[in-house]
Amino acid sequence: MENQVSKGIKYMLYASLLFAFMGAAAKELSDSMSSVEVVFFRNVFGVFFILISIYKSPLKQIGGKFWLLTFRGVAGFVALLFYFYNISQIPLGEAMTFSKTSTIFTAVLAYIFLNEKLGFKGWIGVFIGFIGILFITEFDGSSLEKSDYLGILSGVGAALAYTSVRELRTYYDSRAIVLSFMTIGTIGPLILMIIGSFYVNPNLDFMLGTFTTPQLNDWTYIILLGIFSTFAQIYMTKAYSFAKAGIIGTISYSNIVFSIILGLILGDSFPSMLIVFGIILIVLSGFLVSSKKE
């Protein structure tokens, strides 16, 4: 049993590192193209890999929840769009921390919509998590920066996607669920880039952009983006098959550390003490919320 758990932890560490590298590749690409275009390339490769998998092993599912499946795809796409925009604007570690707030929001949404018990420890974790969000946004009581509210919304979007998956997995093959997300995440950016070529609004730069032909160096990062994200998903799936969700969910927070390190290598400034404290609170929150599942 311990060997199985060790394998799960090992695979989640691999996945966390690969997700951090995916973020680093996205950050490098953001220097030469819009975050909308980066989202397009992130997903188009995923669609290709999933379709190959389905061709080799056809889907076996009940189906019947088309609109919920579509909602999951849209929520995941919006979360990724905001996350990749933040990667281009703020340090990688901070962008990743905002994304990881999804654990907090998922716990609350599952309590509201799925009647999942949270327990005293879980509610303490949620409370600590929201305090952590105040610290990483360095909220002074006046207003939030664009990256702050987009970061929070990326966490909410991911939470909506994760919560809907809990219902969808009863009706659909996991590959169909991922394919819905990646298909919408491929078509959505194309539509937004078409709109962006006719309508320019600096305030909407997080969702509108134009297509820029990738240079040779860009293609290297695009390929790496696809490889890192695909293998990260594979290892994460393996991790959850070997160990309990609470353990794996806790280990997944290591990608914040990996992201901070990679961000510093790429030239990010070290987080302020307020932000570091906020990150610690959010990680602690994740531990408490994840452990309540045990």
Folded structure, characterized:
The protein has 294 residues and is an all-alpha fold. It has one domain (36-215, 265-291). The chain has 12 helices and no strands. The protein has helices at residues 2-29, 35-56, 66-89, 92-100, 102-113, 119-136, 146-168, 174-198, 216-242, 245-251, 254-265, 273-291. It is globular and about 50 Å long.
Mean pLDDT score, rounded?
88
The shape, in one word, is globular
What is the oligomeric state here? Answer: single chain
Order of helices and strands: HHHHHHHHHHHH
State the secondary-structure class: mainly alpha
Task: List the SSEs and their pairings.
Layout: H1 2-29, H2 35-56, H3 66-89, H4 92-100, H5 102-113, H6 119-136, H7 146-168, H8 174-198, H9 216-242, H10 245-251, H11 254-265, H12 273-291
Helix pairs in contact: 1-9, 1-11, 2-3, 2-8, 2-9, 3-4, 3-7, 3-8, 4-7, 4-11, 5-6, 5-7, 6-12, 10-12
Summed up:
The protein is an all-alpha fold.
Can you give keywords for this protein?
single chain, 294 residues, mainly alpha, 12 helices
